């Protein structure tokens, strides 16, 4: 009896710091909430096309762009969780910074008060009627508010990932801040959860949205709709009318080629290094049975992915399979050149081996599973700046763009 009581006290003491941490973060979320604004746009609040920067003279058509096409600069990128979106973000940061475009940036945090729906008032130094070129940080999608910030000719782009792989990644990355997962026993919490998800899930619980249909939640919808609920397809059709291009993480290079084509950018504009990638040993390999259970649990996300995966391949067919293959090979060749030029050892390393703090990516609480890069010491001066920017993680890049991230840093 004494031993049981002692063990119980020890377990309670271990839980206390996590409970306190969660409460502190909730208070911070409340403190950093900005005032509510009117959801319906008015003429005074909406960015007018006549004052927006639509075709800046600093950008000229590239040799590999269509002759009748001018580079697009007004872009809304809906950054979804765990979908390779951090790599897209770096591409947008570099393009916008290079061409002196105007970003709508978050304030005090690296997101727009997520998981709250996006509001214009969450933008750093926002003034009603102000125009921006690029919005691209984490948010919960709210088209009515976003349409106030961007001119009517803005292009809306996002990226999706297979729901099973996304669910596995999100479960691993966020479980330390999801109290629902703290009481799951066993060495493989993910499998335990999938065997009986209802036992460890409540829609009202803190951060529970990370555990079910996370994509659907990111887009501003109810992530707890039941299987075969007709509202799922209705919401998917709504997104089809809002987004000009939906990228697919599993076909990342093909996605970038389609993005380049849509925006009329050059191959140089879409060169990249993979950012925010986990080391292979931290990835849980789900067997077919567990994958089927994960798919059933994330049914709304699956329907979303299924729909836009089909439309993605329709875009590839329209682009031309042979042309796509040639462009992907060229992108791979150019990327390989940049890796050899910029990266010490030519590849990513584990967090413990990253030498400069500026290149250290954000890590899940209690571990260092996200890999990063080291910049070569013998790099030519003319390449140092672009190489450093390509290797810079989101948090550090936001700081470089002038965002005071005191809330994120405190976390």
Automatic annotation (TrEMBL):
It is a single-pass type II membrane protein. Its main location: Golgi. The keyword Phosphoprotein does not apply. The keyword Nucleus does not apply. One of its GO terms (biological process) is galactosylceramide biosynthetic process. InterPro entries: Gal-3-0_sulfotransfrase (IPR009729), P-loop_NTPase (IPR027417). One of its GO terms (cellular component) is Golgi membrane. Keywords: Glycoprotein, Golgi apparatus, Membrane, Signal-anchor, Transferase, Transmembrane, Transmembrane helix. Belongs to the galactose-3-O-sulfotransferase family. This is Galactose-3-O-sulfotransferase 1. It comes from Gambusia affinis.
């Amino acid at each position: 009896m004494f031993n049981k009581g002692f063990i119980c006290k020890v377990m309670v003491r271990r839980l206390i710091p996590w409970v306190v941490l969660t409460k502190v973060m909730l208070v911070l979320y409340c403190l950093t909430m900005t005032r509510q604004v009117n959801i319906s746009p008015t003429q005074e609040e909406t960015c007018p096309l006549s004052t927006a920067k639509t075709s800046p003279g600093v950008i000229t058509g590239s040799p590999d762009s269509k002759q009748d096409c001018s580079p697009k600069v007004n872009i809304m990128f809906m950054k979804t969780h765990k979908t390779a979106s951090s790599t897209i973000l770096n591409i947008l940061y570099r393009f916008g910074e290079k061409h002196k475009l105007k970003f709508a940036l978050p304030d005090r945090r690296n997101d727009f008060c997520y998981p709250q729906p996006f509001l214009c008032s969450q933008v750093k130094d926002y003034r009603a009627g102000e125009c921006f070129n690029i919005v691209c940080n984490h948010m919960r999608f709210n088209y009515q508010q976003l349409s106030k910030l961007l001119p009517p000719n803005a292009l809306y782009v996002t990226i999706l990932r297979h729901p099973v792989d996304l669910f596995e990644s999100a479960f691993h990355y966020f479980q330390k801040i999801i109290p629902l997962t703290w009481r799951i026993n066993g060495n493989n919490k993910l499998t335990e959860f999938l065997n009986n998800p209802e036992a460890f899930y409540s829609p009202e619980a803190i951060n529970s949205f990370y555990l079910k249909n996370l994509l659907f939640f990111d887009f501003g919808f109810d992530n707890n709709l039941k299987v075969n609920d007709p509202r799922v397809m209705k919401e998917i059709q709504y997104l089809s009318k809002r987004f000009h291009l939906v990228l697919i993480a599993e076909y990342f290079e093909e996605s970038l080629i389609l993005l380049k084509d849509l925006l009329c950018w050059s191959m140089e504009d879409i060169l990249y290094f993979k950012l925010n990638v986990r080391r292979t040993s931290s990835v849980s390999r789900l067997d077919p049975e567990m994958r089927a259970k994960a798919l059933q649990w994330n049914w709304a996300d699956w329907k979303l992915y299924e729909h836009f995966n089909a439309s993605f391949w329709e875009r590839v067919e329209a682009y031309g399979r042979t042309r796509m293959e040639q462009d992907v090979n060229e992108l791979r060749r150019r990327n390989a050149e940049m890796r050899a030029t910029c990266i010490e050892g030519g590849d990513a390393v584990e967090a413990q081996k990253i030498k400069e703090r500026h290149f250290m990516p954000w890590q899940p609480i209690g571990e260092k599973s996200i890999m990063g890069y080291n910049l070569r010491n013998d790099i030519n001066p003319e390449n140092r700046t672009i190489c450093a920017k390509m290797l810079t993680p989101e948090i550090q890049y936001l700081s470089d763009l002038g965002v005071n991230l005191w809330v994120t840093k405190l976390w």
